[in-house]
Design goal:
Elements (H helix, E strand, L loop, with lengths): L3 E6 L3 H11 L5 E7 L2 H11 L3 E5 L7 H8 L6 E6 L4 H5 L4 E6 L4 H40 L3 E6 L2 E6 L3 E7 L2 E6 L3 E4 L3 H7 L5 E5 L2 E4 L3 E8 L2 E6 L4 E3 L5 H8 L5 E2 L1
Length: 261
């Protein structure tokens, strides 16, 4: 369980000592500072950015509300206000306070306030973790959209880096893919289905279970009947589609001046 980094602020030494003593009972609390006035509290909040602050309302230099106003919303921790003045209680909940302790309070009331704060802090942590996971998935999705850009091919112990954009088409060969580029073809150890998942989906068009074409190199497509097309590439290679991919091919070619009759 993540420890809750906590600061205690009270201008009365005995009141401050009591809170510190009570906090020692809770293993999930990490006390990172004690402050005797508003200025010290402001400095420590800005420096350490704690999770939780027990904050006295009335202090000689400036009030607990002043501390939070000066700290700024960007780094506000959760607050348990400690006060002898009940009129401050409702105001406290308007400034990120999760609870308040009205002096004199007993140990049970202290525990209730602390447990309430713990729940709110862990809920926030879980929400932040969720946001991070969502962002991670979004980043992954963005990378997937961009797709794989290079291959590393090893031949006779020598590694060659191939640009995906230079590939005319990929052809399935069992657990390998044959990469057809301008000058040469290469074997790459991966199935065509797995490779397609890594490529930019907008860059390649599958016309057959075993053929994936770079759309940039398509010169024309001729319907040859039986739900099949003859696709000619810019290097004069001709490839025949299978019937199962007719709709996919037609959808791609529909808005392009590539279909020949």
């Amino acid at each position: 369980m993540k420890k809750i980094r906590t600061i205690v602020v009270d201008d009365e030494p005995l009141a401050r000592a009591r809170i510190v003593h009570l906090l020692q009972q809770f293993e999930y609390i990490q006390l990172i500072g004690e402050c005797k006035n508003g200025k010290e509290a402001l400095d420590k909040i800005q420096q350490y950015q704690p999770d939780l602050v027990f904050l006295d309302v009335q202090m000689p230099d400036f009030s607990g509300f002043d501390v939070l106003t000066k700290a700024g919303k960007g780094i506000l921790p959760f607050i348990i206000f400690v006060t002898a003045y009940d009129q401050y209680a409702l105001k406290a909940f308007g400034v990120h306070a999760v609870d308040y302790l009205l002096k004199p309070y007993d140990d049970e009331r202290f525990t209730i306030a602390l447990e309430h704060a713990k729940k709110q802090i862990y809920l926030k942590e879980n929400a932040l973790l969720h946001q991070k996971m969502v962002q991670l998935l979004e980043d992954h999705k963005a990378k997937t959209v961009q797709g794989l850009t290079h291959f590393e091919i090893k031949e006779k112990g020598k590694a060659t880096l191939l640009n995906v954009a230079d590939t005319y088409y990929f052809e399935s060969h069992g657990n390998y893919v044959k990469i057809h580029q301008r000058e040469k073809s290469f074997l790459y150890r991966q199935t065509l289905a797995a490779l397609r998942e890594q490529l930019n989906q907008d860059q390649f068009l599958q016309i057959h279970r075993s053929i994936l074409i770079n759309r940039h190199f398509i010169q024309s497509a001729k319907y040859i009947g039986n739900n099949q097309y003859l696709v000619r590439l810019k290097n004069e290679t001709e490839l025949t589609s299978s019937r199962g991919y007719r709709e996919e091919i037609y959808a791609y070619l529909e808005d392009k001046d590539l279909r020949s009759q």
